[in-house]
Backbone:
């Protein structure tokens, strides 16, 4: 209870910084705070393996990727200028309040069916998991118990996700590779001329605005 | 030990904040950050329900969601970099030429 009361405000503050910060670097650092708080909440929910994974994968790898791209594209400044959809802020506020209210109604009328330590006893019925289940009865949610479930009941999704990761790696490399220089001496940096979009991009492509390259 | 309902309420708040971010921010990278926030809110609810039901299925689902989010970030940021090379911007209003 104390862990929840300490970590929940931290997670909310980080989330608000993420959404409201003008500078994209500040926003991503706020998201790191939220991710670390959520990792602590996972640990308080008997999910120690997921807490470690959250810190390593999310707060480590994914956020480094985000910061790298933000700094590579020099995209840390907010977009100024007229909002094309003028009522979107009011709409977002109303939608957010409705969503939070509906989820709060669900949340405060929810009753626990049974605690985790009791439910892990059910794993003993599956052949071959008796030792891991014994470990899990003492500390449910550790790497051994989660791995046991992942590699028995959820083997097919596990393999599918590994294939998906491979496809994502290959796709990311294929997307960002530079075009191969043509043998007839066409310059490599030749910019593809896109068909002109309707209204707002015409002014954005004027050379005056090009000096504002970092203003995203 | 805090009741499951508290965790679900926190998850709903985080999800709502992330949704507001997706709707109001105008840079593709900031929209991605907000989507990550929403995914984490869903993960928190899944882990809370896993404890509540005494079943590790929810935690396994969180593991898979994390992997999917990592793949999504890799592909999405690659697309943003590729678009930035052609258009010199990540403003989603200027990139809305696929609409209609």
Residues:
């Amino acid at each position: 209870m104390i862990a929840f009361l300490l970590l929940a405000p931290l997670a909310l503050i980080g989330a608000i910084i993420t959404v409201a910060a003008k500078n994209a670097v500040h926003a991503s650092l706020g998201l790191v705070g939220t991710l670390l708080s959520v990792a602590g909440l996972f640990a308080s929910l008997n999910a120690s393996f997921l807490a470690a994974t959250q810190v390593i994968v999310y707060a480590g790898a994914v956020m480094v990727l985000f910061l790298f791209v933000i700094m590579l594209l020099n995209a840390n400044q907010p977009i100024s200028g007229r909002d094309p959809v003028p009522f979107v802020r009011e709409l977002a506020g109303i939608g957010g309040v409705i969503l939070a209210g509906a989820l709060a109604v669900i949340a405060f009328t929810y009753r626990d069916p049974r605690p985790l330590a009791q439910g892990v006893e059910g794993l003993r019925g599956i052949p071959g998991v008796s030792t891991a289940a014994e470990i899990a009865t003492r500390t449910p949610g550790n790497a051994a118990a989660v791995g046991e479930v992942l590699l028995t009941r959820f083997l097919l999704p596990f393999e599918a996700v590994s294939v998906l990761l491979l496809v994502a790696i290959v796709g990311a490399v294929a997307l960002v590779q530079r075009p191969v220089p043509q043998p007839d001496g066409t310059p490599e940096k030749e910019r593809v001329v896109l068909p002109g979009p309707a209204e707002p991009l015409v002014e954005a492509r004027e050379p005056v605005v090009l000096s504002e390259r970092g203003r995203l | 030990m805090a009741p499951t309902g508290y965790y679900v309420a926190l998850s709903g708040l985080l999800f709502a904040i992330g949704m507001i971010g997706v709707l109001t921010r105008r840079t593709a990278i900031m929209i991605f950050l907000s989507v990550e926030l929403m995914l984490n809110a869903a993960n928190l609810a899944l882990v809370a329900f896993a404890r509540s039901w005494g079943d590790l299925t929810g935690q396994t689902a969180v593991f898979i969601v994390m992997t999917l989010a990592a793949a999504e970030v890799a592909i999405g940021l690659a697309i943003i970099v590729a678009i930035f090379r052609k258009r010199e911007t990540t403003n989603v209003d200027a990139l809305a030429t696929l609409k209609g």
In short: The CA atoms of residues 3 and 147 of chain A lie 26 Å apart. Chain A has ten helices and no strands.
